[in-house]
Amino acid sequence: MLYTIAVILLVMWLLGMVSAYTIGGFIHVLLVVAIVMVLVRVIRGERL
Fold it and tell me: Nearest CA to 38 among 48, 29, 30?
């Protein structure tokens, strides 16, 4: 489930990069959250 959320956040970030709206800063925060969640899973040793 965490992996799915990370993928959704990554897609939202990519859409934010394509569109030049002011919500881009929020999208970048979501990307950082997605990366942190994936790293926590990798460090714990859980399978993606």
Answer: 48
Residue labelled with tokens 């859980």: 46
Q: SS3 for 11?
A: helix
Residue-wise pLDDT for 1-48, tens only, equals 777 888 887 787 777 666 656 566 777 777 788 888 888 888 888 665
Q: Give the end-to-end CA distance of the chain in Å, rounded to a whole number.
A: 10
| CA atoms within 13 Å, Cβ hemisphere of 40 | 9
Residue 22's CB is within 10 A of a number of other CB atoms, namely: 6
Identify residue 41 by its one-letter amino acid code: R
Predicted structure pTM score: 0.49
- The residue type of 5 is I
